[in-house]
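ugh finaly. both done.
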Amino acid sequence: MPQSFTSLHYHLIFSTKHRLPIITPDLQLRLYEYIGGIVRGQGGYLLAAGGIPDHVHLLASLSKQVAIADSLRDIKANSSGWIHATFPERKDFAWQTGYGAFTVSTSAVDEVKAYIANQTEHHRKLTFQEEFVAFLKRHNIEFHERYLWE
C-alpha cells in the first residue's frame, strides 16, 4: 500500500497545577481557540474543547507524525506561554505535569463531544479527581491513587 491512513481521535484531559480554579470565563474560549491552533500546527484538528475552571477536556484528531507525549507537551507549554504573554497578571498559571489520553472510536465521537459540552453540569455531581479515576477504571488503566495527584 503506497499510502498510510489513520483515524486517531483522542479524549485528552489535564488540569491546572494543583487543580487551581483559574480558567475563568474570560480566558476559556480564547484558550480553546489557541489550543486548536496548536493542534492544527501539529497536523491535527480540535473537534471539541470544554471544561471547568480547574481542568480541560479536548477531543482531538491528532497527526500520525506526532507522538502523543510530544503533542501534549507542546499543547501545554505553548498555551501556558500564550497565557503568560496575553494575560501578564496570570504569571502563576501552570498546567499539571501529567495528563490522560484516551482513544475514541469514530462511532463514539458525537458521544464524547456531548460529554465535553456538558462539563459544567457534570461537575455539579463529581469532582475532577472522581471523574479522572472513573476514566482510568473505565479504560482498565492500573494506578496507585497515592501517586495520582500532585
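ok and the 2nd:
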Amino acid sequence: MAIPHANPGDVINVSPLGTALAGTKSSTLLKSGQIEVVRLVMVAGKEIPEHQAPGELTVHCLEGKIEFTALGQRHELTAGRMLFLHAGEPHAVKCIEDASVLLTILLKP
C-alpha cells in the first residue's frame, strides 16, 4: 500500500507536537521528483549513525533538542534553529531532548 503524501495545494501542519510528541512516528510529508519533506520524530538518547543525504538538505528543529554532527563540528539545534548541508555531506544525529525536526531534501532530477 502506498504511503499518502501531500498533494500540490495541500496545507501541511508542521506545528510542534507538544504532548503528542511521544506517540508520534516519523513520516514523509511530501515527495515529488525534486523534493522530499520528512518530519523526523526522535526520543532522547536515540542516535542516527553517520550517513549521507542524496541531495542538499535543510534540518529545521521544530521542538526539543538535537545534536547534529557535520563538517567536523557538533551543532546543537533547538526550536527555531535550522542547518543547511550540501548533497552527500556525511552527518550524524543524536537526540538530546525528545524532538521533532523538519528535513527538506532537494533531490536531483
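summary for the 2nd one i guess: The mean pLDDT is 93.
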